[in-house]
Write a structure and sequence with these properties.
Protein name: 3-demethylubiquinone-9 3-methyltransferase
CATH class: Alpha Beta
CATH architecture: Roll
InterPro entries: Glyas_Bleomycin-R_OHBP_Dase, Glyas_Fos-R_dOase_dom, PhnB-like
Radius of gyration: 15 Å
GO molecular function, one term: methyltransferase activity
Low-confidence stretches: none
Oligomer: single chain
Shape: globular
Pfam families: Glyoxalase (PF00903)
Keywords: Methyltransferase, Transferase, Ubiquinone
CATH superfamily: 2,3-Dihydroxybiphenyl 1,2-Dioxygenase, domain 1
Number of domains: 1
Length: 139
């Protein structure tokens, strides 16, 4: 897997509808994981909301989306982040160190409950970044 750079859009309770719409527009392969799939929902009403979705098209387009959980800030117009992901954790940690320097770390770059190493930051220019080093598959 190469390192990839793509938009990541956050929604409030409409991520499934939105990503399925984008799938109808662009085609390709769509994968969806809910908060319930990973035991990340304390409220049963939130279990079917989208924790992560990814649309990959044959011509190289990638779009990711999720629902913003209750209690987390959500402001339309500032709900797009740049996602940087891949398998080379050392490479991604280097990018993370540079992107977060002088900015604000909102989620430290560390092992996440789903097995990846993940972090979120606002760089010194106010751009939101999500960095994800894909963990080794379990099992």
């Amino acid at each position: 897997m190469v390192t990839r750079l793509n938009p990541y859009i956050s929604f409030r309770d409409t991520a499934r509808e939105a990503i399925e719409f984008y799938h109808s527009v662009f085609g390709g392969e769509l994968t969806i994981s809910t908060f319930g799939d990973f035991g990340m929902s304390e409220n049963p009403a939130d279990a079917d909301k989208i924790m992560h979705s990814m649309l990959e098209t044959p011509n190289g387009l990638t779009l990711m989306a999720s629902d913003t959980p209750p209690g987390m800030d959500y402001k339309p117009g500032t709900n797009i982040s740049v996602s940087l992901s891949g398998e080379d954790e050392a490479e991604l940690r280097g990018y993370w160190d540079k992107l977060s320097a002088g900015g604000t770390v909102t989620v430290p770059f560390e092992k996440a409950p789903w097995g990846d190493t993940f972090g979120m930051c606002l760089d010194k220019f106010g751009v939101q970044w999500m960095v994800d080093a894909v963990g080794k598959p379990q099992g």
